Amino acid sequence: MLYVIFTEGSTATAGEHLVRHDLAYEAVRLARMLTALLPAEPEAHGLLALFELTAARFPARTGPDGEAVLLEDQDRRLWDRSAIRRGEAALGRAAALGRGLGPYGLQASIAACHARAESVKRTDWERIVLLYEALGRVAPSPVVELNRAVAVAMAEGPLPALEMVEALAAGGRLSGSHLLPSVRGELLARLGRTAEARQELERAAGMCGNDRERTLLLRKVDALG
């Protein structure tokens, strides 16, 4: 339940705000309480690590008018370094318990890769791919596979990633989500298939319930010319 609350706070599914800070920070507070109640449970620490490391990026995720800011465009100087340190410490506690990382710990490890990187280009995408592969084994889902495709695109290029996305689409997975056409549109754009990319991004915008995210998708359409 805490994961669901934080996820909705981190990227609201609907409405005019991209981030719902009230929900996200309440989930962080409750996760801290959970680690105090269950100090020997690795996933409690993994969950807190994930929340802290993700919330650390909140100050840079939106612009002055509340507009969404892409990861590659974020001013990393705005990231909350105290939250990153807390997240790294929680992740360390999860690992130190010696029972291996579960789904939350693996997601926190991915968030830590982003937190440690100086830029998108200097992010350890190869490690992120491996972490998503591990996550897919312990907690398989179409969203995990889609995120792995994004990481593959950064590590190896858009073509193998597009093949993964096409396989998801062919299986009817994520058919009701704007995430799949959004990623597919990005990959098609990188491959120079502009008309198809525009169509996919427009479709994603039409399926998106969050006003800020929809505006971002339409900006991407406009940027294609």
TrEMBL record:
It comes from Nonomuraea soli. InterPro entries: DUF6596. It holds the Pfam family DUF6596. The lineage of its organism: Bacteria, Bacillati, Actinomycetota, Actinomycetes, Streptosporangiales. This is Putative RNA polymerase sigma factor. Residues 1-95 form the DUF6596 domain.
